[in-house]
Design brief:
- This protein has 397 residues and is α/β, with parallel strands linked by helices.
- The protein has eleven helices and 14 strands.
- The strands form three sheets. Strands 1-4-5-6-7-10-11-12-13-14 form a ten-stranded mixed beta sheet, with helices on one face. The chain has a two-stranded parallel sheet with strand order 2-3. The chain has a two-stranded antiparallel ribbon with strand order 8-9.
- The protein starts with 6 loop residues before the first strand and ends in a 37-residue tail after the last helix.
- It binds S-adenosyl-L-homocysteine (SAH) and iron/sulfur cluster.
- S-adenosyl-L-homocysteine binds next to β11 and β13.
- The site of S-adenosyl-L-homocysteine (SAH) has 16 residues, from β11 and β13.
Length: 397
């Protein structure tokens, strides 16, 4: 059974970089072109804009610098102008929790939206021996209502901006001390040389319902002169928004994960109601057409193990049939319970039998060890406290 972990530390709120009533605009999340346009707004002459935006880009995204005064190749005069009009913002850390297994979860508060509301999101870092995965959110809440997902009990509040999505990676690098200068100063590199090696869009929200902002964020995260994580190491997880899947392959180019969870439309309709709109056959057809997938770059199929619902040997055999012809790997996820849920996690023996059917058919099917359960940081447990909907209201969604 998954090992139990205990909560080591709940940090007091960490000093906020957010300044109340600060109307300066954040530069985080702007593309190179938008950055050049922002420089034009503060009077940088056209012939200097490319060079200046390259410098700014490097300081913000590659070095993690937030203070214009530290950007030493930018003139004092321009530093001052930038500081008058702009900030290099991060989401504000409300709490930081560290699990006994090293998993960290941040509750983050966003800058006010146009109505002045300050929403909260969660972001989780999961260290492993050979990698460190950062799980980021793409929306506050979710429009979809998957019945086993805690986020699904919260209505969509709003899409995150590209800056708020990429900002989670930047904030995590701040907190873990994962910027190049930090790693030089404290050379205890994990085997891969940095702490965050992979980013997964598996936090709150459906990334393909926030396409443009997710695309903008992935461009910054994967930019060779930006946050420098290759697109291969960025995985977008979708519940199956079929029309956007192929488009994502063409325009975003990240790795793809599909939340399958059911092997018949009847079961999947109950677990992932979006299946009624885009049934399994259409979803798998979109996967077959996903640009860039190959045996070297497989599509991940996520499958949450729910006791007595989708965990029989017949389900496992049907899953093998469904995946035929798709370069696929399967991630079996033990269900992570949350208060008020109607589901239970499958027994460990059942999960092993299920995995064995997949293994015998040639699918490596690692069972994802639940991480950070003590701090409600595991898959599907994410939901900011401020947005709680009572469990009894859930059925009405
Ligand atoms: N909306 C996207 C990405 C966020 S959910 C999607 O659905 O793919 C990330 C993953 O966590 C999905 O595979 C989702 O099905 C899974 N998940 C949600 N709730 C869970 C829970 N309670 N236990 C285990 N996995 C869960
Ligand atoms: Fe939304 Fe994904 Fe949760 Fe479904 S599993 S409700 S799509 S976040």
């Amino acid at each position: 059974m998954p090992r139990m972990v205990t909560l080591l530390q709940t940090a007091a709120p960490v000093a906020a970089s957010y300044i109340p009533n600060d109307t300066r605009r954040s530069l985080v999340g702007l593309s190179r072109e938008q950055l050049a346009a922002a420089l034009a707004d503060v009077g940088v002459p056209e012939k200097q804009r490319r060079m200046r935006s390259r410098q700014l880009w490097h300081w913000m995204y590659n070095r993690g610098v937030t203070d214009f005064a530290l950007m030493t190749d930018i003139s004092k005069d321009l530093q001052r102008k930038l500081d008058e009009s702009f900030v290099v913002a991060r989401p504000e850390v409300v709490t930081e929790q560290i699990s006994s297994d090293g998993t960290r979860k941040w509750l983050l508060r966003l800058a006010p939206d146009e109505k002045g509301a300050r929403h909260e999101i969660e972001c989780v870092y999961i260290p492993e021996e050979d990698r460190g995965t950062l799980c980021i959110s793409s929306q506050v809440g979710c429009t979809l209502t998957c019945t086993f997902c805690h986020t699904g009990t919260q209505k969509l509040v709003r899409n995150l901006t590209a800056g708020e999505i990429a900002g989670q990676v930047m904030l995590a690098r701040d907190r873990i001390k994962d910027w190049p200068a930090d790693l030089e100063a404290n050379p205890q590199p994990p085997s891969s040389g940095r702490y965050i090696t992979n980013v997964v869009l598996m936090g709150m929200g459906e990334p393909l319902y926030n396409f443009d902002n997710v695309k903008g964020a992935v461009e910054i995260i994967s930019d060779g002169e930006g946050l420098t994580l290759s697109k291969r190491r960025i995985t977008l997880s979708t519940s199956g928004v079929v029309p956007e899947i192929v488009r994502a392959g063409d325009e975003i180019g990240s790795s793809l994960a599909i939340s399958l969870h059911g092997t018949t439309d009847e079961i999947r309709n109950k677990l992932v109601p979006l299946n009624k709109k885009y049934p399994i056959a259409e979803l798998l057809e979109a996967c077959r057409n996903y640009p860039g997938s190959s045996n070297a770059r497989r599509i991940t199929f996520e499958y949450v193990m729910l006791k007595g619902v989708n965990d029989s040997v017949a389900d496992a055999k049907r899953l093998v049939q469904l995946l035929k012809g798709i370069p696929a790997k399967v991630n079996l996820i033990p269900f992570n319970p949350w208060p008020g849920t109607q589901y239970e996690c499958s027994d460990w023996d059942t999960i092993e039998v299920f995995a064995e059917v997949l293994n015998n058919a040639g699918y490596a099917s690692p069972v994802r060890t639940p991480r950070g359960r003590d701090i409600m940081a595991a898959c599907g447990q994410l939901k900011s406290e401020s947005q709680k909907v009572r469990a009894s209201e859930r059925g009405k969604d």
